[in-house]
Structure formats: C-alpha cells, structure tokens
Amino acid sequence: MFMKKKLAVLLTVTLLAACAAGCSSTAEEKKETNTTAAQESVSEASTDEGDKTKAAESDVELTFSAWAGATEKAVLEEALAGFTDATGIKVKGIFIPDDYETKISTMIASGTAPDVGYLVAPTAHDWYADGQIMDLTPLMEEDSSFKKEDLLDAAYSYYDDEAIDALLLSLQTYAVFYNKDLFEKAGVPEPSADKVWTWDEFVETAKKLTFDSNGNSALDADFDAGNIQQYGVYINPKGPTIVEPLLVRNTSVGYTDKDGTEYGLKNPEAVDFLQKLADLINVEHASPSTTTAQGLPSADLSLQTGKYAMVVDSQYMLSNFAKLESLNLGLAPLPSNGNNTILTSSGCKVIFSQTKYPEEAWELMKWLSDPAESLELYSSGLWMPIKSDWYTDESKVEQWAGEGKSHPSGYKEVFLNPVWENSELSSEHRMKHYNQINDIVFPALDKVWTGEQTVQDALDKVMPEVDKIFDGVFGQ
C-alpha cells in the first residue's frame, strides 16, 4: 500500500557520527557540493557514446529501496524487471515495510546506501541539506530526452528556487467518500460531484445522517448524543495531512500563509475553522470523537457497514473501497467557502549521493515515474500519475481512471480534473520543520477534540515554542 503516513526524521547516532565532519558546513554549501558532484558525474557518464548501450553491456547494478507492502512490492518488482529488460541495467529491490528511515540511515552510515529510494518529503529536504541525496536538476538538464513539462509542476520537490531534491512517487489528494445507500435510506439528496458544497451545507448534511439508537437524527429535539448508532461523517482531526486540505479550502491559509512567511494557525480564520471542526464532534455530534473512532472498525469498513455515512480521506482509499463488493460508493469534493484549490502530497523518490551511477539512477527514476510500467498501482485506485500526458491523453486516462469499481462515477470531476487544473503541494512538501512543528501542535490539540479546551487556548500555550522553530518554506 502506498505510504502516506508520517515518518519522523530519524538520523541515527551512527549516521550523525558518520557525517559529523561534513555536517559543519551550511546547507547552501552542501547544495553547491551536491550540484557540482552531480554535474561531474553526469559529465563523466556522458563521455561514452551511446550511454544506454554502454550501460546495457556493463556490469552496472543499482539498488532501489521502498517501504512497499505486499501488493505494491509485487508491482514494483515487475517494473524493475521491465527496466532491466529494456536497458540491461540490473536492479536489486530492497523492500522495508517497517522502520524504514532508521534502516536507510544505517545503510548510509555504513556506506551501503541505495542508489534510488523512497523518502517522505521532510526527510528528503533534511537529508539533502546534510549531503545525503543529490540535486536532480543537473541530471535533468543533461538529459536531452527529458522535458520538465513532461511531469506536472506538483511532481517536483524543490529545496530552493533551483535545487530539486526529489520527484514525487505519485499524487494524492482528499475528498469526501460516501455510502449512497445510507443517503437514500435517510432521504437525503446526494452531493454533486461537480458542485462544491459550503462548510455549512456539509455540516447540515452530516447532521441529517447522524442517528441515535431510536432513529432520531442530530437535528431532532429528542436526539440522544450518548447513544449514537450512525455518524454523519468521520474526519480524523489528529491527522495533519487531512486537516490542512480542509483548512485551505475554507480559510485564506494552510499551515503557512500564502507567501510562506507566517505560521498559518496563528491566523484567526484558521483558529475559527479548527474550532468548527471540534464543534462537529462535540457540539453537532455528527462526527465521532477520537476515542470513539478508535473503538470502531477502520474507516472503509465503517462506511460499508453504516457506522459512518461519509468519510473524508485520501484518494488512495479507493483501492480499499474497491474490495468491498457491497459498498455503493459515492464521491464528492471537499466543502469550500469559495477557494477550490486542492492540496496534493505523496512520498518521494530520491537519488542517494553515494551512488556510483547517477545517470543510470536517473533513468530508473524516469522509468518508475511512468504509469505504463506499474499500471496496477494506478488502475487499482492507489496512485495518481505525475506525468502530464496521463491527464490529457484520453487513451491513457482510460487505462488508469476509466469508470469502474476502483474509479466510480464522479472520479474525474472530484479528483482528476482538480489535480490537473487547480492543485498545489501541501505544507508537508514546503514548510520547513514540518514534522517538528506538527509534533508540538497536534498533541496540544488533543484536548480540543475531546471538548476540554478551546483551539485558541491550546494554541496559545504552544505558539511560543512554534515561533522559535518556524522558518518559512522551501523552494523560495
């Protein structure tokens, strides 16, 4: 399964010791070193005529690391075998489903880093600054077969206004998934895939779909909030990647302001919206508390069995929903008060600085970015492409997003078209110290979601600590 969960930046003591001498220089000096090394490597690799032919005749073997589960692993192994067949470059896959970054950092410290591998965006930025991964820009510029517009703008992870430290694995964005049968049973009109509802309309719908054990809805005077049998919607407020897309569409900020100079949750609009999210649980009673949700089945099963009528989650959940034969799934856009921008995010692909074969590693990066080489990851509903023509060429769109169980009616309106037309990368890819700040803020909000504290009071207690860490955004 696609790795969407947050991994902490885990540079082990061994790694810190190994890079101690090199870590004393500034991140800017490291960037220049990375860029020069990549240019020299590309220059050396390009001196032979017919680079691919030369590679095919050589004993080059790359290593590729991923956190893939069983299904993704099988598809990736097939893609790696296809790469070897096409280029003659051997690739050894290293699949690490648990404790991924700790194990990769240990490999780096021992001088056995992969050539190409997965990383989450905050780690990619940190490890680029420490000289552990390469700037991809020189490799792109030296590749006459590659044009930057071949990939969506959102495919590139920028360290600053020049250096690109990673390509995204795929694209993910958020929407509302709902059980059509529960809407019909309650006599509630379904939302439209191509018409965005306001936050107030969304909340009103959730209340109509919330029922106690006596069949009273959350709008009824006799509603028993202590004995709820069906919740109108499930939103995990403890998940930073779920909260921000809602925040962006309903306020003027995300986790930063528009120019990236201020922390977004200091904005009164953001505080007000987070309080509305808490009120959805504790005042409207239309969404379960975090404690209640922990005692219920997973979101996909709860949607199928009628514990939830709607779920706000990432598009990769389609691969889970598709396995539930009895679920009559509907799709709707996130509610918005006028801003229809959607946020995208994903894990990243990087080239580690220890590679002896940067040009061959770049060829593997391109191969793994082509949906044609791992189509099942896309057609199953797990991933969205980063290649532009897989959004514009109807024959390619049909291969991965044709209407069916994994991509039900409304998919193009809710997911595909907005990603192509009006998307931007989430703060996970842009904000400096993203993990560290969230590790301060979101635990502080725990009492907000249980109704014990207001958002303003919770944030006031931790904002001085956040202010010490917040340092703007990457890519500027």
Automatic annotation (TrEMBL):
Family annotation (PROSITE patterns): PROKAR_LIPOPROTEIN (PS51257)
Key words of the record: Cell membrane, Lipoprotein, Membrane, Palmitate, Signal
Region entry Disordered, spans: 28-56
SUPFAM superfamilies in the record: Periplasmic binding protein-like II (SSF53850)
Cleavable signal peptide: 1-20
Database matches in Pfam families: SBP_bac_1
Top-level division of the source organism's lineage: Bacteria
Cytoplasm found in the keyword field: no
Source organism per UniProt: Eisenbergiella tayi
Protein name (Swiss-Prot/TrEMBL): ABC transporter substrate-binding protein YesO
